[in-house]
Every structure is written in structure tokens, then in C-alpha cells.
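Key idea: predict the complex, not the pieces.
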Amino acid sequence: MNEFDFINKYLSSKNNFSKFSLNYRDDVGYANNSIFSTDTICEGVHFYKDDNPFLVAKKLIRVNVSDIISKGIIPKFCLLNLSLGKDVDDIWLDKFMKGIHSDLNFYKLNLIGGDTTKNLHNTVLSLTIFSDLKDKKFIKRSSAKLNNFIYVTGTIGDSSLGLFCRNNPDFHLLKKYSEYLKNRYLLPKPRIELANFINKNATSSTDISDGLYSDLKNICMTSNLGAEINFSKIPLSTAASKIIKENPKLKTRIINGGDDYEILFTGPDGLEKKKNITKIGKMTKGNQINLIDFDDRINLDGYKHEI
Amino acid sequence: MNEFDFINKYLSSKNNFSKFSLNYRDDVGYANNSIFSTDTICEGVHFYKDDNPFLVAKKLIRVNVSDIISKGIIPKFCLLNLSLGKDVDDIWLDKFMKGIHSDLNFYKLNLIGGDTTKNLHNTVLSLTIFSDLKDKKFIKRSSAKLNNFIYVTGTIGDSSLGLFCRNNPDFHLLKKYSEYLKNRYLLPKPRIELANFINKNATSSTDISDGLYSDLKNICMTSNLGAEINFSKIPLSTAASKIIKENPKLKTRIINGGDDYEILFTGPDGLEKKKNITKIGKMTKGNQINLIDFDDRINLDGYKHEI
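Result:
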């Protein structure tokens, strides 16, 4: 069962409080003129035992920061749940908590509470993050309009290609490129500098955490529209271009690969004039995503994490 | 390392935002005129694989409800993080989600968001719960006054004695008593009906989750006071009295046993006139807890869950 099925089966149909949860059709919830999001990362699934704990901490904070800033809002507060697995020792915990404080300071986030428990097996980490809106609007996933243009921030697919490099250390690629991609996997950099621009200009918005195709599908489904995107317009890093040239099969990772933590949004024409924003397509009638100039249509259903 | 050490080492000294976190000296945090709490329960630590998932769900909600109502506030909103372990199947999940919805309805809680992930090993569940204050005050842990009286709700120690019965099925005790105690372990019943009374009358308050001694110590430490309690005044259920008579060593569980989810609070004289409230002692000078008429002083440091 993937998360969409879970929501449909267990939440949407039983939800009497859609004004707070946005009927679970967004990655944030709304209450008390604030927006909230929460994400969990599990050792062995979302990070690994031998990952630098300083970076694991930053990843935990950043995957959550990403959810709020993609709505055009700067996050302010968080709560931290640590279930520390059997391999956690003082050295791991020291480095991890240094990473937490480093990013709390960087993002000016107030940690207001949490819970710490031992866990019998692996480490499981959750962060809940929120911000008051001060009557500012936030950008929903469900409000794209017909003929809006589709934009992304930064470059797409790097993180998933970085994971490939990590899992295939013998793959032929210049070290500077594989290091670049692996760093993009290890350390997301949510586009906090674009949050206000998104707030002022976007009609709908989400972060790209499950993969470009999957997250665009969410915008389409919740906005009751289709989309048309040009594969050749999707912005790639030099490293991503190089690795795809070496192994063209990896092209599907640009579409399906998760963990980019860039922003996917819709809006009027011309937003690509802003630095680090690229126009890749437009919203259409219907409910299909039409992927122009892409020659490998296998597995295009996007990455859905099974639960 | 226990949770107090963790907070001292990694949080309090590095906290620039004490007005939000209450310097981590309470079990709630404060932001946006709302209070927040979060608790995690892990399979194999806080619940077991063969526990009824319907009750596990209720336990998850109730341990969190308990934190907010002990502050004299009715909780309103929550977010749910499910990391579902390898033994979770559709039947488990169906029952678990029925338990979630049952208690969301019972406590009139709005589930506004969450995250679902697979986990490689055991199941780890977190809930974050909050309520707006509408400029109502909430009762802190740190505000007990000298010569305030100390009160508890309900009966104390049942849950820990229920866990003993569960782990020692051959122990001689009438079935009706062991069943009563085991049910108190499986299904906490936070005293939501006393939340307004606490709000109006208590000077300091906490729920009893780590054990009476340990939670009273928190009130003492954060209020810079000591306490004197009469063991013979601590309210016991009939079942608890019977099992202690059978095995007097179990008396320490009244003091140290966790998971009661009753309320421990301080206030002026006379509050025991209210139903289900018992006066057990008073706040004193110094920083010691003096336990009167208790004859077994071993292991009186209270239950501290190690992390």
C-alpha cells in the first residue's frame, strides 16, 4: 500500500475536519492560522548506519523545512522525536545533536519540545515543523489553473543519481561528478531564498520529494488538471548530464528519482526570469501527464514509497 | 543516559528560545499561544507485537492526550507518524486505524497531518498533539509554591502492577484483580473530566507517566522545592491492595511504576473534596522528597527511561 492508498482508505473518507487537514490532499495541515508538516526518516530506509550523523540530523531538519518553504512560508518552530537504535553510541549522538543545533541556527528554528526513547533495532527520527502565517496566504498543492506554466527550482534528479553512485562505487564517472551527486543525496538544500517569491507568484506548489513525476501527479490530481512537460527542458546539473550520457537508462531517475527537495510550482508566464527557476511545461485539461521528447516510457508511474 | 541528562547535555545549555520551549523543563512546549507535546511508543518497549492494535492506537493517542490535559487544557489537534514494522499486515493496520478513529472521535481531536513509512524491524509510532489556549493560562510543572498541598487523581500504580501480572501469569491473584490491573496497563484513561478543575485550581501540574516519585521530583526540581508525602495516603485500587498484600515487594511499584497517566498536581488546601482527587502530602523547603511511613527505601530514585 502506498501513502495515497493509505490516505484514501483510512483518512479521507473518515475525515470530518477537512478545513484543518486540507482533506490530506496536501503535504501540510492547517490549524490556528499556522501550517504544519511532519516527516519521519528510518535508518536503513532513508539513511544508513554509516552515514555521518551530523548530516543525518541536517537531512531530518531539511526534509521538513522543505515542506513548509514549498508553500511559500518560512518555518519557525519544531518538535523532535528520537527513537535511538541499538547502534547509537555517545559519539553518534554528539555528532547528531551538533547537526541539529547547526541547522536550528541556520534556519532560525525554535525547537520547542520532543521525545527521546530507546529503540530495540534501528534508529527512527521524526520532526514536526510549523509556522504561524500572520494572515499570509500559503500556496496549496491543489490550486493550479488551466494553462498555468510549470516551473522547478534548481536541478532535478541529482539526489537519486547520487544514491546510484553510492550504491555502485565501481561505475565509471569522474570523481568530482560522483562526489557532487552524492553530496546532493546526503545534504538537501531547500530553497529558502525563494520562499517569498513562491508565496507572491505561484498558484500551486509542492516540494519534489517523491520524484518530479509523482509530485507533479499530486498537483494534477488535486487540481483536477493534466500537464505537459518537456523532458529536454528539465534542468540538469553538469554531473547529471555526464552520468546520463554514460548510462542513458539512468534518465528515468530524472523523472522518478526522489529526494530532490527542490520546488515544483505553477504560475503565470515569465517566472523563469528569476535565478534558479526553469519553466518545464504547462497545465492542461484532462488528468494525464504528457511527457514530451522522452523516449523511455517504462516505469513512469513515479516513485511511490510503499508502506 | 536518561532523558533529563539528554536535555541538560544537548538542549538546555544551547537553548536560545526558552520562552517557547519553557527551557525543556516541562512536558509541553509553548508557541503561537498554543501548547504542544509529542510522545513516541516503540514496539517491544512501550507495547508488544501481540497487543491488540486497536488498543495500541488508543494508547498512542492517550499518552499524548494525558500530557495536555494535565496542564488543564483540552487538546484539539494532532499529527500522526507511523513507521510500520515488518510484522504489520492489513489486519493489524485495519484494527490500528479503527482505534485511531475511535479515539479521535472520543476526544474530539482533529488529525491534521502525518507521515507513513515502512520500517525494517519493529513498529515505531509518534503523535504530536496541541491546543490553542485562547488566552487561557496553562498549568506548568515549575510553579508549585511552598506549603502547597500535593494531590493525585484516581489510583496509583495499577498500570505497573498490570505489567507485572502480564509478565508473571503464574502469580497467585484472583483473575478479576489481575484483569483489572492488566486493563489499566493496556488502556490509559486520561482524566479529561478534571482538566478544567486543574486549570482553575492547581498551582503546578504534570501527568504521572514515569512514576509518582520521578514525576514529583520533576515538580520539585523545576519549582526549587522539596516534598513530603505519606505513602499510606496514596490511593490504591482494590486490586493493587490485594496484589501488594500477596507480595509486599511490589509496593515500590506504587512509587516507581510508570504509565499511570493520572495527574499529579499542587494547590491550596481542600481540593481533595472533588471526586477522584486525593491529598497525599505537601511541598516543603529544600530539594528532597521525604516519603513518610514507607519501609522499603531501596530503588527510590524513580523510574527513568534510559535513552
